[in-house]
C-alpha cells in the first residue's frame, strides 16, 4: 500500500517536473531557437510524442471511466455531476461520497457514487455514512466528531460498539434463494432454533 | 367553575349516605399513639360483625365438648378447644396472622416475633404462636399497637436481609416479600453495613444463600422432627447466628427438598430449579406422583412443553404436605432419553424409525404367528390402571392369559385384597404404638410412609422392630434379625418382641413387597398371619396387618387381576409385550422371542426389543393409579406428549384393531366402565377403599420357610424406575449422597 503511494507520488512529481519543463520550453523558446536548431527540433519531436502519449492515456482513462456510462444513464449523470464537486470521503467498500455546495439545489447537494457499478442499491451505504448522506448529520463517516475529538476518539466509525455491532451487509434480496432472509424460527433458516424441550433416545448409542 | 364540580355539588345533598364510602383515609395524631387509640377502641361499642370463614378452611375438632373455650378475636366470639394457641384461635376466627417461624406441622419456636397481637389486660403485645388461648381472652389483631409492633419486627428483619428480590428464586412466593408489603416501611433508617453469611453446601438439591436467612429455624425443626436427621442446627448468637451443619456435611435425608418449601425466604431454594423460571410463569397441574407406591399428591409446574418443577400438594391422608426428594427432583428425567418415534429393529440389529401403521402391522402379524400360550404381557411399574386393563383384555382376546405387572412376583396372591394393601392406611399408622417391619426398609421403599412412622415414634413413643438386612433408620429401631427364622420365633412366642406386640394397644405389622419375589412367600405370609392372630393385630376396630408395595402400578394391577396363568411362562414365550417393564428378568427368555417394548424411556427394556412403541409418561396422560393403601387417584396431563408418542391404552386399542380382535372401548370413559366391572374401587377416586375380607379366608399353606435373609428391595433410593434412571439430578444424588 505504502509502496504504491510512493510510486504515485513519484509519478506525480515526475509529471510536474515535465510540465514545468514544458512550460519553460514554451516560454524560453526564442532563446533556444537561437541556439542549437537540431537540439530544438529533437525536443519538439519528443514533446509531440509525449503529447500524443498523454492523449492516448487520457483517451484510455476516459473510456475506462465512461464505458460503464453507456448503458447506464444514471451513472453518467452521477459522473457529470461529480465534475466540480468535492469528494468528501470514501468508505471501506469504496463508495465515494460527493458534496457540492454552490450551484446545486439544496437537498441534492450530497450524493454517492457506488463502488459497485453494475448492481448498486441504497443498502450498500454503511450505517456510518448513512447519516451524512441523508442530511441527518454533518459528520462524515470517517470524520472525528468535534465533541469526541477532544477525547481522541475518531467518531462514528469508532462509536460502533465492537461487542455487538455487526459488519454492514447490503440487502441481497432477489440475488438468489440462498440470500432470502428467514427469521430465527423459520423452517428454512439454517440456524433454526430447536424448540423441542426433550432429548430423544438415540438407538445407535445402545448398540 | 367546571361542569363536573357543578354536577358533584348538585348531587351531594341527595347522596348523603355515600359519604361513608367516600371517606378519605386520614391519620390523626391520636391514632399515632397506641394508648389513646386503645382507649378510643374501648369506648366504641362492640361492632356486630358478620361471621367470618376460617383461614385456609381451618377445621375445629372438639374431642371433648366440655373442653371448648370461648375467646374474642377482634370482638368476634369464637369457640375453640382448650390448648389451642392464640394464633390458631385467630385462624379459626378467619384472621390470618403474619408469621415466619410458626409452622403448623413443626414445634413452636416463637423466635420471629412477627405474629405479635394485642391482648387485653396484657402489658405488652404477645407472640400469638406461642401463647395458649385462655377462656374469655380478648385478642385484637388489627390495632395500632399490634401493627406498630409488627412494623418494628419487620424493620429489624429487613435490616440484615439483602435487597436482591429481583435475582432471588423465591421472589413472587416469598413470605417476607409479601408481608413487607403490609408491614414494611417505605424508607430505611439503617445506615450501617448489612451482615453477610457464608453459604453452606447442603448437597445437590438444596441451594443456600444464607445471607437471606432470617433465622426462623423452620428448616432446623423440620430436619430433626420430620426428616429425623440431626443435620441442621444453629451456630452463634445475636447477629452472628447462623444456620448450618456445624462441620461441612451434606444433608443426607430423603425429605431434604421440603426445606425449600418451608423456608419463608430465599435462603434455601431448589438447586436444579435455580434461575430456570419465575413462579408466575408456570402453569400448575394437580396430579399424582408415581415414583413410589405412596401416590403423593403433587403439583407439576410447567412452562410450555417442559416440566419445570414439582411441588407437594396437601393431602392429610397420604403425604401431608411433604414429598420425597425422588418425587420432587425426578422431573428432569422426563426430558431425557425419551422414545418419540415407533422403531423396528432391522436385520442388521439397528433400529429404524417407521410409521405407526407399519409398526402396528408387524406387531399384529407376529402376534398371530405364535401360539396363544406363547404370548406374554408384562406391565411396567409406572403403568396406569387403564392401560393394564387394555393390555389384559387384548392378551385375553389373543388367547393368552400370561399377563402380570413387574414386582408382584410370578404367583401373586390377588384373591384377597387385604393381602396386598396397607390395611391400616397411611394416616392410620399414627395411632399405632408398636411396629414390626418384616423385610421392608420404608425409608427407601416409601419415604412418606417412613415419615409417618417417624412422626408416630416421636409422638407416641412407639416401639419399632425390624427384621431384614442391616439398614439405617431415622428413628429408634430394634433390629430383631435378618431372616424368616426370627419371624418364626416371634410367631411361636419365643422372642421378647412378641410380648411387645401382644401388649400393644394398636400393633402394626408391615411386610415389604420384596417378599413377593421369594419362593416361600406364602409360608412367610402364613407366619405373619399367625403373629397377627396371636398378637391380636387384626380386630374389628383395628387392622394392623399391612403390605407395603413398591411401585405405583402394583396395587391396581392386582386389583385388575393381572396374574400370570403359569409361573414359568417366560421360559416358553415367543412374543413378549413389555408395557414399560424395565426391571423384569428376561434372562430365561428364548433367544428367538419377539419383544415389543412400549414405553416412554429408552431404558433397560429396549435393549432386547424388536419393536419400540413410544408412550406418554405420567406427566402427559390421564390415568388412574392406586396407592399402597388402596386409594385410587388420577393423574392429569401437565405437558404435551413428546414426538409421536401416544397413551399406552390407545396404542393397545389400535393394535387390537390391526390384529383383528378389536377392543370394545374407544374413550377413557369406555375403558373406565370396563374397569368398573373388574375393580369398581378404581373409580372411587381420592377415596380409600378398605379391603372387604380379612386374612382368615386364606387357605392353609404347606410351604416350608427358607431361612435365607430378606433382601433389600431397593438398592438405590434415587434410581428405581425409567424416569429416575434417566434423571441427571438423581444420578448426582446417588453419586454424592449414597457414597459410603
UniProtKB/TrEMBL annotation, chain A:
It comes from the Eukaryota. It is a peripheral membrane protein. Residues 1-34 are annotated as: Disordered. GO terms for cellular component: mitochondrial inner membrane; respiratory chain complex I. GO terms for biological process: response to oxidative stress. Pfam families: NDUFA12 (PF05071). Belongs to the complex I NDUFA12 subunit family. This is NADH dehydrogenase [ubiquinone] 1 alpha subcomplex subunit 12.
UniProtKB/TrEMBL annotation, chain B:
GO terms for biological process: ATP synthesis coupled electron transport. Its main location: mitochondrion. The lineage of its organism: Eukaryota, Viridiplantae, Streptophyta, Embryophyta, Tracheophyta. Its EC number is 7.1.1.2. It is found in: Mitochondrion inner membrane. Its cofactor is [2Fe-2S] cluster; [4Fe-4S] cluster. Belongs to the complex I 75 kDa subunit family. Residues 33-46 have a biased composition (Low complexity). It catalyses: a ubiquinone + NADH + 5 H(+)(in) = a ubiquinol + NAD(+) + 4 H(+)(out). Residues 33-59 are annotated as: Disordered. This is NADH dehydrogenase [ubiquinone] iron-sulfur protein 1, mitochondrial. One of its GO terms (cellular component) is mitochondrial inner membrane. SMART domains: NADH-G_4Fe-4S_3 (SM00929). Residues 67-145 form the 2Fe-2S ferredoxin-type domain. The keyword Metal-binding applies. Keywords: 2Fe-2S, 4Fe-4S, Electron transport, Iron, Iron-sulfur, Membrane, Metal-binding, Mitochondrion, Mitochondrion inner membrane, NAD, Oxidoreductase, Respiratory chain, Transit peptide, Translocase, Transport, Ubiquinone. Residues 145-184 form the 4Fe-4S His(Cys)3-ligated-type domain. Pfam families: Fer2_4 (PF13510), Fer4_NDSU1 (PF22151), Fer4_Nqo3 (PF22117), Molybdopterin (PF00384), NADH-G_4Fe-4S_3 (PF10588), NADH_dhqG_C (PF09326). GO terms for molecular function: 2 iron, 2 sulfur cluster binding; 4 iron, 4 sulfur cluster binding; metal ion binding; NADH dehydrogenase (ubiquinone) activity; oxidoreductase activity, acting on NAD(P)H. Residues 282-338 form the 4Fe-4S Mo/W bis-MGD-type domain. InterPro entries: 2Fe-2S_ferredoxin-like_sf (IPR036010), 2Fe-2S_ferredoxin-type (IPR001041), Mopterin_OxRdtase (IPR006656), Mopterin_OxRdtase_4Fe-4S_dom (IPR006963), NADH_UbQ_OxRdtase_75kDa_su_CS (IPR000283), NADH_UbQ_OxRdtase_ferredoxin (IPR054351), NADH_UbQ_OxRdtase_Gsu (IPR010228), NADH_UbQ_OxRdtase_Gsu_4Fe4S-bd (IPR019574). Core subunit of the mitochondrial membrane respiratory chain NADH dehydrogenase (Complex I) that is believed to belong to the minimal assembly required for catalysis. Complex I functions in the transfer of electrons from NADH to the respiratory chain. The immediate electron acceptor for the enzyme is believed to be ubiquinone. This is the largest subunit of complex I and it is a component of the iron-sulfur (IP) fragment of the enzyme. It may form part of the active site crevice where NADH is oxidized.
Amino acid at each position: 500500500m505504502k509502496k504504491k503511494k510512493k510510486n504515485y507520488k513519484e509519478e506525480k512529481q515526475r509529471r510536474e517536473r515535465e510540465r514545468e519543463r514544458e512550460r519553460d520550453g514554451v516560454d524560453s523558446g526564442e532563446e533556444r531557437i537561437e541556439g542549437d536548431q537540431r537540439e530544438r527540433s529533437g525536443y519538439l519531436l519528443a514533446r509531440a510524442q509525449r503529447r500524443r502519449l498523454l492523449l492516448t492515456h487520457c483517451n484510455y482513462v476516459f473510456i475506462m471511466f465512461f464505458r460503464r456510462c453507456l448503458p447506464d444513464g444514471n451513472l453518467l449523470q452521477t459522473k457529470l455531476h461529480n465534475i466540480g464537486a468535492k469528494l468528501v470521503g470514501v468508505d471501506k467498500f469504496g463508495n465515494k461520497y460527493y458534496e457540492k455546495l454552490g450551484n446545486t439545489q439544496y437537498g441534492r447537494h450530497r450524493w454517492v457514487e457506488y463502488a459497485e457499478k453494475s448492481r448498486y442499491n441504497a443498502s450498500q451505504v454503511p450505517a456510518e455514512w448513512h447519516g451524512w448522506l441523508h442530511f441527518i448529520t454533518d459528520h462524515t463517516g470517517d470524520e472525528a466528531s468535534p465533541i469526541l475529538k477532544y477525547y481522541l476518539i475518531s467518531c462514528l466509525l469508532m462509536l460502533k460498539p465492537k461487542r455487538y455491532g455487526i459488519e454492514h451487509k447490503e440487502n441481497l434480496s432477489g440475488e438468489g434463494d440462498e440470500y432470502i432472509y428467514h427469521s430465527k424460527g423459520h423452517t428454512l433458516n439454517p440456524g433454526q432454533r430447536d424448540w423441542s424441550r426433550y432429548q430423544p433416545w438415540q438407538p445407535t448409542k445402545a448398540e | 367553575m367546571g361542569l363536573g364540580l357543578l354536577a358533584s355539588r348538585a348531587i351531594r345533598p341527595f347522596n348523603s349516605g355515600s359519604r361513608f364510602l367516600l371517606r378519605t383515609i386520614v391519620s390523626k395524631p391520636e391514632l399515632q399513639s397506641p394508648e389513646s387509640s386503645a382507649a378510643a377502641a374501648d369506648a366504641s361499642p362492640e361492632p356486630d360483625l358478620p361471621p367470618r370463614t376460617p383461614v385456609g378452611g381451618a377445621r375445629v375438632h372438639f374431642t371433648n365438648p366440655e373442653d371448648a373455650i370461648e375467646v374474642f378475636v377482634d370482638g368476634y366470639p369464637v369457640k375453640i378447644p382448650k390448648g389451642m394457641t392464640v394464633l390458631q384461635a385467630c385462624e379459626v376466627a378467619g384472621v390470618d396472622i403474619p408469621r415466619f417461624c410458626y409452622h403448623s406441622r413443626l414445634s413452636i419456636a416463637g423466635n420471629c416475633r412477627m405474629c405479635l397481637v394485642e391482648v387485653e389486660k396484657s402489658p405488652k403485645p404477645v407472640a400469638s404462636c406461642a401463647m395458649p388461648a385462655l377462656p374469655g381472652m380478648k385478642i385484637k389483631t388489627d390495632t395500632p399497637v399490634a401493627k406498630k409492633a409488627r412494623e418494628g419486627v419487620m424493620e429489624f428483619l429487613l435490616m440484615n436481609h439483602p435487597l436482591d428480590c429481583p435475582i432471588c428464586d423465591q421472589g413472587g412466593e416469598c413470605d417476607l416479600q409479601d408481608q413487607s408489603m403490609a408491614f414494611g416501611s417505605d424508607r430505611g433508617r439503617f445506615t450501617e453495613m448489612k451482615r453477610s453469611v457464608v453459604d453452606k453446601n447442603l448437597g445437590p438439591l438444596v441451594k443456600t444463600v444464607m445471607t437471606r436467612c432470617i433465622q426462623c429455624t423452620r428448616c432446623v425443626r423440620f430436619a430433626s422432627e420430620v426428616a429425623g436427621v440431626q443435620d441442621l442446627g444453629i451456630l452463634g448468637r445475636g447477629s452472628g447466628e447462623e444456620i448450618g451443619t456445624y462441620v461441612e456435611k451434606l444433608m443426607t435425608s430423603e425429605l431434604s427438598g421440603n426445606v425449600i418449601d418451608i423456608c419463608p425466604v430465599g435462603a434455601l431454594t431448589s438447586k436444579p430449579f435455580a434461575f430456570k423460571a419465575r413462579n408466575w410463569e408456570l402453569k400448575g397441574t394437580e396430579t399424582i406422583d408415581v415414583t413410589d407406591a405412596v401416590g403423593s399428591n403433587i403439583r407439576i409446574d410447567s412452562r410450555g412443553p417442559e416440566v419445570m418443577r414439582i411441588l407437594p400438594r396437601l393431602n392429610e391422608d397420604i403425604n401431608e404436605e411433604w414429598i420425597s426428594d425422588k418425587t420432587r427432583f425426578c422431573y428432569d428425567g422426563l426430558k431425557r432419553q425419551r422414545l418419540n418415534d415407533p422403531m423396528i429393529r432391522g436385520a442388521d440389529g439397528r433400529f429404524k424409525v417407521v410409521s405407526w401403521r407399519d409398526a402396528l402391522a408387524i406387531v399384529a402379524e407376529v402376534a398371530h404367528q405364535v401360539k396363544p400360550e406363547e404370548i406374554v404381557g408384562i406391565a411396567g411399574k409406572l403403568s396406569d390402571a387403564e392401560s393394564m386393563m387394555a393390555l389384559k383384555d387384548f392378551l385375553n382376546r389373543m388367547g393368552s392369559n400370561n399377563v402380570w405387572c413387574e414386582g408382584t412376583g410370578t404367583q401373586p396372591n390377588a384373591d384377597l385384597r387385604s393381602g396386598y394393601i396397607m390395611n391400616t392406611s397411611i394416616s392410620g399408622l399414627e395411632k399405632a404404638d408398636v411396629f414390626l417391619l418384616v423385610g421392608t426398609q420404608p425409608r427407601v421403599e416409601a419415604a412418606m410412609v417412613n415419615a409417618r412412622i417417624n412422626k408416630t415414634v416421636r409422638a407416641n413413643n412407639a416401639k419399632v422392630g425390624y427384621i431384614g438386612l442391616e439398614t439405617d433408620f431415622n428413628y429408634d429401631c430394634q433390629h430383631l434379625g435378618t431372616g424368616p427364622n426370627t419371624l418364626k420365633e416371634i410367631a411361636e412366642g419365643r422372642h421378647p418382641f412378641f410380648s411387645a406386640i401382644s401388649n400393644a394397644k394398636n400393633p402394626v405389622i408391615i411386610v415389604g413387597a420384596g417378599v413377593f419375589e421369594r419362593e416361600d412367600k406364602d409360608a412367610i405370609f402364613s407366619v405373619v398371619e399367625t403373629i397377627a392372630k396371636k398378637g391380636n393385630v387384626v380386630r374389628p376396630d383395628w387392622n394392623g396387618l399391612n403390605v407395603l408395595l413398591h411401585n405405583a402400578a402394583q396395587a391396581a394391577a392386582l386389583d385388575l387381576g393381572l396374574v400370570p396363568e403359569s409361573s414359568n411362562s417366560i421360559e416358553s414365550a415367543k412374543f413378549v409385550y413389555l408395557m414399560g417393564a424395565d426391571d423384569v428378568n428376561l434372562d430365561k427368555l428364548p433367544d428367538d422371542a419377539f419383544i415389543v417394548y412400549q414405553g416412554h424411556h429408552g431404558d433397560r427394556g429396549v435393549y432386547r426389543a424388536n419393536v419400540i412403541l413410544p408412550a406418554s409418561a405420567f406427566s402427559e396422560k390421564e390415568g388412574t393409579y392406586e396407592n399402597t393403601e388402596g386409594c385410587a387417584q388420577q393423574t392429569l396431563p401437565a405437558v404435551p406428549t413428546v414426538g409421536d408418542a401416544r397413551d399406552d391404552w390407545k396404542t393397545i386399542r389400535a393394535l387390537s384393531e390391526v390384529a383383528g380382535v378389536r377392543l370394545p372401548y374407544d374413550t377413557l370413559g369406555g375403558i373406565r366402565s370396563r374397569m368398573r366391572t373388574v375393580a369398581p374401587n378404581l373409580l372411587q377416586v381420592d377415596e380409600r377403599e378398605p379391603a372387604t375380607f380379612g386374612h382368615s379366608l386364606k387357605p392353609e399353606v404347606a410351604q416350608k420357610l427358607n431361612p435365607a435373609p430378606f433382601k433389600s428391595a431397593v438398592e438405590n433410593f434415587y434410581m428405581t424406575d425409567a424416569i429416575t434412571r434417566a434423571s441427571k439430578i438423581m444420578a448426582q444424588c446417588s453419586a454424592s449422597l449414597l457414597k459410603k
